[in-house]
Design brief:
Order of helices and strands: HHHHHHHHHHHH
Radius of gyration: 21 Å
Structural class: mainly alpha
Number of strands: 0
Number of helices: 12
Helix content: 55-70%
Shape: globular
Largest sheet: none
Oligomer: single chain
Strand content: under 5%
Length: 284
């Protein structure tokens, strides 16, 4: 780490990692990439299995007892808790994305390469399908009877409301990811120890409380795709686009807000680049 010397403001007490190349074909020859892809696959499989099984189990219990089941609060805890556990377990291997929207936001911020991002998203989607498949295998006909854990727009809400809920919910999540993993924050607030997976998991928990009544809470295209593919009923596909468009817009907005407004590093770099181009043109 660099430290400030002599009170100078030119030296930073933290170091931003260099931007990842957009295309890095050299990664394809490294085992670390494939190990990370496998970790994303396994983590997303476990995430979807536990959370969707919680949803199906809750609906089964409330059939015979209106007060049975874990309720919305328990479902929200299952999603947030699993994200906390799985991000903690995989952060040192793959970064613990477990979500195409998170991967997309980090790609836009040049935290991961395009090659890695594409492989992560494929692994996440396949993992989600396998996780939903396990739930169907264990719950049998009850899986389809209770909607397969698939996201769908609740009655009484417009598509605009559903899209807006997914955008805002994903914004909260991805903004938390950027803030919790910010090297500047870690350096300046080192006296306040924060385990990064904790605020990320808690953000997922809080967003579920707010969004379950509207869309069932997607904020993760892989989580929405896996159950939709396994359940494969018309109502699971009618508004499925919401669970891709919303999270991707929310992730992009969170990246722009954190990187260009709060950190301003990207904005400064862009302005400096434009200034250099202007000076070069003036001297030409």
């Amino acid at each position: 780490m660099e430290t400030c010397a002599g009170g100078s403001n030119n030296n930073k007490d933290y170091r931003d990692p260099p931007p990842a190349p957009l295309v890095n074909a050299g990664e394809l020859g490294k085992w670390s990439l494939y190990r990370a892809v496998i970790a994303e696959f396994a983590a997303t499989l476990l995430f979807v299995y536990v959370t969707v099984a919680t949803v199906i189990g809750h609906k089964r219990q409330t059939e015979t007892d209106a007060c049975g089941g874990v309720g919305i609060l328990g479902i929200a805890w299952s999603f947030g808790g699993m994200i906390f556990v799985l991000v903690y377990c995989t952060a040192g291997i793959s970064g613990g994305h477990i979500n195409p929207a998170v991967t997309f936001g980090l790609l836009l911020a040049r935290k991961v390469s395009l090659v890695r991002a594409v492989l992560y998203v494929v692994a996440q989607c396949l993992g989600a399908m396998c996780g939903a498949g396990l739930v169907r295998a264990f719950h049998g006909e009850q899986y389809a009877r209770h909607g397969g854990g698939a996201n769908e727009l609740a009655g009484g809400y417009s598509r605009g409301a559903g899209l807006g809920a997914e955008i805002v919910g994903t914004f909260v999540l991805v903004y938390t990811v950027f803030s919790a993993t910010d090297p500047k924050r870690k350096a300046r607030d080192s006296h306040v120890p924060v385990l990064a997976p904790l605020p990320i998991g808690f953000a997922v928990f809080m967003v579920h409380l707010a969004t379950i009544p509207v869309t069932g809470t997607g904020i993760n295209p892989a989580r929405s795709l896996g159950p939709a593919v396994v359940y494969n009923q018309r109502k699971a596909w009618e508004d499925h686009w919401i669970f891709w468009v919303g999270p991707f817009i929310g992730a992009a907005a969170a990246m722009l807000y954190h990187q260009f407004v709060l950190r301003a590093s990207k904005a400064k770099a862009l302005l400096a680049s434009m200034h250099n181009i202007h000076n070069h043109a003036s001297y030409a």
